[in-house]
Amino acid sequence: MRSMDRAIIEQKFKQILLALVFASLVACGGQPTGDDDEDIGSVPPFDILGIEGGSDGIVDGFLTNGSLANISWEPNSMASSYAVEITTPANVDVCASQTTTNTSFSFDSCNLSEGQDYLVHVFAVTAAGNVPATNSPFPFTVDTEVPNTSID
């Protein structure tokens, strides 16, 4: 098998595994699953710091570029990785869930529409595959229109 084929298969496997983790989270009402030795009751919540993309370079709740979204969040001490996704307020997937071990992630191939509201979701995933810590989704708006700053 060529290395390119293997990489594609590994990526698909990760996406399926992540989907199973999310399905498990939803099925149990957002509560942790599994009975390993993790002290899931004491995991502190963590916050999404914001989103940045486009010309303004500011991490906030506005995205000035509809195709590049750089998301950052606080670290979680129990996380071995994080699952990140962008949805509509009605929870329709816009940018498919991705996994990272960093505390930031860049979606660079999403089609986010001007004037639309979206939500960023970040889930801390433990080495055992549990999702003990979630956060409130972070709302943001795509605003690529340059404001009129002329003085009459």
Q: Report mean pLDDT, rounded to a whole number.
A: 74
Shape: elongated
Order of H and E elements:
HEEEEEEEEE
Query: Number of DSSP strands?
Result: 9
Low-pLDDT sequence parts: 25-29, 31-42
User: Using only CA atoms, what is the Rg?
Assistant: 17 Å
Question: How many separate helices?
Answer: 1
Proportion of residues in helical segments: 10-25%
Please give the alpha-carbon distance between the first and last residues.
67 Å
Largest sheet: 6 strands, mixed
**Hey, roughly how much beta strand do the residues contain?**
25-35%
Structural class: alpha+beta
Describe this protein with a few key phrases.
152 residues, alpha+beta, 6-stranded mixed beta sheet, 3-stranded antiparallel beta sheet, 1 helix, elongated
Write the layout of secondary structure elements.
Layout: H1 3-27, E1 48-52, E2 62-63, E3 69-73, E4 81-87, E5 93-100, E6 104-107, E7 117-125, E8 133-134, E9 138-142
Parallel strand pairs: 2-9
Antiparallel strand pairs: 1-3, 3-6, 4-5, 4-7, 7-8, 7-9
